[in-house]
Amino acid sequence: MIAFLTLIYVALLFLLIKLGKLPNSKTVWLTVIPYEVILVMGLFIPMQWGAPTGSARVMTYSVAIVPNVSGQVSEVPAQANVPLQKGDILFRIDSTQYQAALDGLKAQLRLAQTRESQARQLVAQDAGSVYELQTYEAQIDGLNAQIDAAMYSLRETTVRAPADGYVTNVVLRPGARVSSFPIAPAMAFIDTSETGVVAQIHQIYTRYIEAGQEAEVTFKTMPGKVFPATVMYLVPATAQGQAAVSGAAVQPLASMTPGPFMVRLKMDDPDIEARLMPGALGEVAIYTQHTKATHLIRRVMIRMNAILNYISPA
Fold first, then answer.
1. What is the DSSP annotation of 201-261?
2. Are 156 and 80 spatial neighbours (Cβ–Cβ below 8 Å)?
3. What is the DSSP secondary structure assignment for residue 28, as one 8-state letter?
4. Is the pLDDT of residue 115 over 70?
5. Beta-carbon neighbour count of residue 311 at 10 Å?
6. Where would a tag sit more exposed on the chain, N or C end, judged by fewer CB atoms within 10 A?
7. Over 47-90, what HEC string results?
8. CA–CA separation, 159 and 91 (whole Å)
9. What values do phi and psi take at 178, rounded to 5?
10. Quick check: 44 and 1 in contact, CB under 8 A?
11. Is residue 36 included in any domain, yes or no?
12. Could you tell me the CA-to-CA distances from 217 to 98, 106, 204, 306, 310 in Å, in that order?
């Protein structure tokens, strides 16, 4: 942008010299130097905190699908990248062993209830043991608890979508065996119920960023377009400031390089936010309440970058 404004100034000098308004002298052409100094000191440096910019990324939540029971997969109705609603079936696990376990517990419960009824009659006739009756009652309570757990395991053989979204990179097939261990997820579920834009802003430029400020975003996936957005909040912490629980004494940090802070944005147009693909990259400009004279330059710059998105992959 500095080069662009300098070219405009040079073109203006050339025009004024041609019209005879200025002499074609070395002194006139050397005014380009103080002009650039004024641009940098009076415009572009204040613009960095008055209208900070940074890289933006579309973020959403990814859920690692780990079944609550283990077994052999019998069916995979879910298809990759096809929209799903909360509760839709992702895959089913062979339920034979879990149904058999439930049936066995129900049979034991029926027997225990019969024995408990007989013991109660004997106690009423002073011909039975109260201790034996209490044993059967406790046995019934325990079997009911086991049946609840067995019914839960049986229900969990049908794995459902935890939210609105879709599964991607579906390689699970009938016959595969899945485990309830979290180290071996069966699928990656992309939760689209909440999609947001997050921007990285250098620490030195974050001091004037506040919730509710106007912002503009351009994306690589939508070249040539600039979309209005609003600052939701500045995330007030980074991993560099996180103290991990440890039994060791304080250790010197490996790096003291200041990392950027994250700014959460909300697109003003809900339809645009719904169209954004998770992982899409772009650039954001935030317009604070300071050095408003620089906002126009920032608006021009982000629109130039939006046009360059047609040809620049980086």
1. E-GGG-TT--TT-EEEEEETTSTT--EEEEEEEE----GGGPPPP-SSPP---S--PPPPE
2. no
3. H
4. yes
5. 7
6. C
7. HHHHCCEEEEEEEEEEEEECCCCCEEEEECCCCCCCCECCCCEE
8. 5
9. -110, 155
10. yes
11. no
12. 52, 61, 21, 9, 15
Task: Kindly report, residue by residue over 276-302, the tens digit of the pLDDT.
Answer: 888 899 999 999 998 888 898 899 889
- In three-state secondary structure terms, 198 is strand
The reply to whether 146 and 49 lie within a common domain is: no
Tell me the β-bridge partners of 266. Answer: 230
101 and 203: one domain?
no
**Count of structural domains within the chain:** 3
SS3 288: coil
Q: Which pLDDT value is given to residue 13?
A: 67
Q: What is the pLDDT of residues 230-282, one digit of tens each?
A: 999 998 877 777 777 777 777 776 667 788 899 999 999 988 888 888 889 99
Beta-ladder partners of 57:
198, 281
DSSP string, 152-184: HHHHTTEEE-SSSEEEES----TT-EE-S-TTS
Residue 150 CA neighbour count, 13 Å, CB half: 17
pLDDT at 81 over 70: yes
The CA distances from residue 209 to 29, 38, 287, in Å, are: 40, 26, 8
One domain, residues 131 and 181: yes
Range of the domain at 153: 62-190
